[in-house]
Automatic annotation (TrEMBL):
Protein name per UniProt: DUF899 domain-containing protein
InterPro entries to which the protein is assigned, alphabetical: DUF899_thioredox
Taxonomic superkingdom: Bacteria
Organism field: Mesorhizobium prunaredense
C-alpha cells in the first residue's frame, strides 16, 4: 500500500477498491490479447493489392501489398483512414497548409487525423520491434503526402488505395462508397499473406452512453482523459484549434 500527502482515509479506501478493478481490467486485457493471438489462421488475401506510394527513392511508385513486408518482419498493421472524410462529417476543414486547398468533401476525417498524429511517433518503435505499419486512404497519393507534410508526420508509410478494392474488401468502405475507419493486421506465412484481425468492434452495437471505441485501447488521447476527474468530454477532435494545426 502507498499513500500520498494529506489524503484522507476515505480516499485511500476508495482508491484501494479501484485498484482491484484496475488489476481485474489488466487481467481481462491480457486474456483478450491471448485469445486474439490464439485465433486460427485467417483467410488468404484475394490478391496482391497494388497501391500508390513513395518508393525508396522518394518518388511515386506502384507498391504491392507483399512489398510492405520488410525482410524478417512477417506482420503488417494497416490503418485505413477516412480520407476523404465521411459525407455526413460536419466538423471544420483545414484552413491552412496544402490540405486547405482541397474541397470540403475531399478533406480528411479529423478523428482519423488526430489518431495518426499520435501514432506517427510510435511507428519507428513498431518497426524496430519487428512489425510493419502503413496508412491507407482512398484519395490521391499527392493528397496523403500533403496531409503528412501539414501534420509533420515523418515515420508512417502513406498509401493510396484509389486504384484498388482493398478498402472495400476489408470493410473500410461502405456500399455507398463512404469511407470507414478500420485497423487491420495481416500476417505472412508459408502459404501467403493472411488476414489476422480487424477492429470489428466498430461494427458491434455500443453500450448505452458509450461510443464504439473500435481501437480504444491504442488511443492515447482518449485514454489519458479517462484518468481525469472530468473523464471523456462531449467533444470531437478537430483538424486545428484556434486556427493552429496540431502536430
Amino acid at each position: 500500500m502507498i499513500t500520498f500527502p494529506n489524503e484522507s482515509a476515505e480516499y485511500r479506501a476508495a482508491r484501494e477498491t479501484l485498484l482491484q478493478k484496475e488489476i481485474e481490467l489488466r487481467r481481462v486485457m491480457e486474456d483478450v490479447a491471448v485469445a486474439r493471438r490464439g485465433l486460427p489462421p485467417g483467410g488468404l488475401v484475394p490478391e496482391d493489392y497494388v497501391f500508390d506510394g513513395l518508393g525508396d527513392d522518394g518518388k511515386p511508385a506502384r507498391i504491392k501489398l507483399s512489398e510492405l513486408f520488410s525482410p524478417g518482419k512477417d506482420t503488417l498493421i494497416v490503418y485505413s483512414m477516412m480520407f476523404p472524410r465521411h459525407p455526413q462529417e460536419t466538423r471544420d476543414v483545414a484552413t491552412s497548409g496544402g490540405t486547405a486547398k482541397l474541397a470540403r468533401a475531399d478533406q480528411p476525417c479529423p478523428s482519423c487525423t488526430a489518431l495518426l498524429d499520435q501514432l506517427d511517433g510510435a511507428t519507428a518503435h513498431l518497426e524496430a520491434a519487428g512489425f510493419n505499419f502503413a496508412v491507407v486512404g482512398k484519395t490521391a497519393l499527392e493528397n496523403l503526402i500533403t496531409l503528412g507534410r501539414d501534420r509533420g508526420w515523418t515515420n508512417m508509410r502513406l498509401l493510396s488505395s484509389a486504384g484498388n478494392s482493398f478498402k472495400r474488401d476489408y470493410h473500410a468502405e461502405a456500399d455507398d462508397g463512404a469511407q470507414l475507419p478500420m485497423l487491420s493486421v495481416f500476417h505472412r506465412d508459408a502459404d501467403g499473406i493472411r488476414h489476422f484481425w480487424s477492429s470489428e468492434l466498430g461494427f458491434a452495437p455500443s453500450e448505452p452512453g458509450q461510443d464504439p471505441r473500435a481501437v480504444g485501447t491504442c488511443e492515447p488521447l482518449w485514454n489519458l482523459m479517462d484518468f481525469t476527474p472530468e473523464g471523456r468530454p462531449n467533444w470531437d477532435e478537430q483538424l486545428q484549434y484556434n486556427g493552429v494545426c496540431c502536430h
